[in-house]
């Protein structure tokens, strides 16, 4: 085998006569039979058409139409989901507002039943909510909380009489006093030293 042998038909090679193409080879024996050229585009189109038909689609446009319809449905569902979530948010807020209003009304009713005056109503309600929120207090309802508040703050009911127990608890009294009026307490406060 010769690697650099030139077969350009010129000159005489080994065993050759020097004429082009006359080396004893007619050329027809090594050439495969002629096949028509393959159109790759046509083969791809046929394969795509066969695949679409196997999936139940006539052509590419019918598949695209189904995909577009599906995408529109997904978008519509997203809109519905967002609308539903918005409605849920509104309902949750309305529920929270109603719960707050219900709590306010329960506190108001309990305070009014206990005889709290209008000028002390908001203070009594705030204290009642704090009593109920504080787990250390025994009050579980607004009625119980307001009763405890009125007991420690009898002035909320408009009473001018302060029970001795309230004075003893608040001012460190001995319990031997009979009844101290609100004016007596105010007189004591006048002489109190403030820091």
In short:
The chain has 195 residues and is mainly alpha-helical.
What does this structure look like?
This protein is mostly helical. Among the domains are: about 55-155; about 160-195, no CATH class. Helices cover about 60% and strands about 5% of the residues. It has helices at about 40-55, 60-115, 120-135, 140-150, 165-170, 180-190, and strands at about 160-165, 180. Strands 1-2 form a two-stranded antiparallel ribbon. Helix 2 crosses helix 3, helix 2 (about 60-115) packs parallel to helix 4 and helix 3 (about 120-135) packs across helix 4.
Shape, please? rod-shaped
Calculate the terminal CA-CA distance, rounded to whole Å.
120 Å
> Number of helical segments?
6
Strand order of the largest sheet: 1-2
Estimate what percentage of residues fall within beta strands.
under 5%
Structural class: mainly alpha
- Please bin the fraction of helical residues: 55-70%
* Major sheet attributes: 2 strands, antiparallel
Query: Radius of gyration, rounded?
Result: 51 Å
Low-confidence region ranges: 9-16, 18-22
Question: What string gives the helices and strands in order?
Answer: HHHHEHEH
Mean pLDDT, nearest integer? 76
> What is the total tally of β strands?
2
Organism: Loigolactobacillus bifermentans DSM 20003
Protein name: Scaffolding protein
Biased composition (Gly residues): 8-21
Region (Disordered): 1-40
């Amino acid at each position: 085998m010769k690697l650099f042998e030139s077969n350009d038909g010129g000159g005489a090679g080994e065993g050759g006569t020097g004429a082009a193409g006359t080396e004893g080879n007619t050329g027809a024996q090594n050439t495969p039979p002629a096949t028509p050229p393959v159109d790759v585009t046509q083969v791809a189109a046929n394969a795509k058409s066969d695949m679409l038909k196997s999936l139940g689609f006539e052509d590419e446009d019918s598949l695209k139409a189904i995909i577009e319809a599906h995408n529109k449905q997904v978008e519509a569902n997203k809109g519905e989901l967002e609308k539903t979530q918005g409605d849920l948010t509104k309902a949750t807020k309305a529920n929270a507002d109603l719960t707050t209003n219900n709590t306010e009304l329960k506190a108001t009713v309990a305070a009014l039943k206990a005889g709290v005056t209008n000028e002390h109503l908001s203070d009594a309600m705030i204290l009642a909510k704090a009593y109920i929120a504080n787990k250390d207090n025994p009050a579980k309802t607004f009625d119980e909380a307001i009763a405890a508040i009125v007991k420690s703050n009898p002035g909320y009911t408009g009473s001018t009489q302060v029970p001795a127990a309230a004075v003893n608890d608040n001012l460190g009294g001995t319990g031997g006093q009979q009844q101290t009026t609100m004016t007596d307490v105010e007189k004591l406060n006048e002489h109190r030293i403030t820091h």
